[in-house]
Amino acid sequence: MNKYNIVLIGFMGSGKTTIGKRLSLHYKKEFIDTDDFIEKKEGMKISEIFQKYGEEYFREKEEELCERFSIKKSKIISTGGGIIKNTKNMDNLKEGGIIFYLQTTAEKVIENLKNDNTRPLLQGDNKYEKVKALLEERTPLYEKYADHTINVCDSSLEYTVSLIESIIDDFK
Ligand code: S3P
What we know:
Blueprint: E1 5-10, H1 16-27, E2 31-33, H2 34-42, H3 46-53, H4 55-69, E3 76-78, H5 87-94, E4 97-103, H6 106-112, H7 127-145, E5 148-151, H8 157-171
């Protein structure tokens, strides 16, 4: 495990940050959240970055970050839901990283994000339709890059975390 990064991918609201923090506590490894990292570096919230500079600029920042993280080792990395849109990102993250895909449904995403308005891609009306369309478009990519797929819909947080830990421990 020391040689590898543990990388969490998956749709918005699938629990990447929460699960990543738990894994980081358990393994006493540094936790990196790509969205947090970008927000701190840019000195503004993701929603402001999208508003001021557009999505493309944000994606450039993601790409720079993934390049930087490819040489890191032994970190727990939680990624933004759109990270898989760029092949370069995933090539970099896969370099020395084990990829866990947190698989969820549109219904669960809506439930998890019902009090959350921070995601620029889900603003406005028809949130469910937006989630469904994006999820459909991205699912093949999440599946393509996953080393392990973890269904997070029907399980408790505790169960999901312990399942991921058991896979990591088996790998040692
Ligand atoms: C995005 C997901 C967000 C954030 C940005 C774009 C996406 O991260 O990177 O709003 O394209 O799916 P989370 O998956 O952590 O919500």
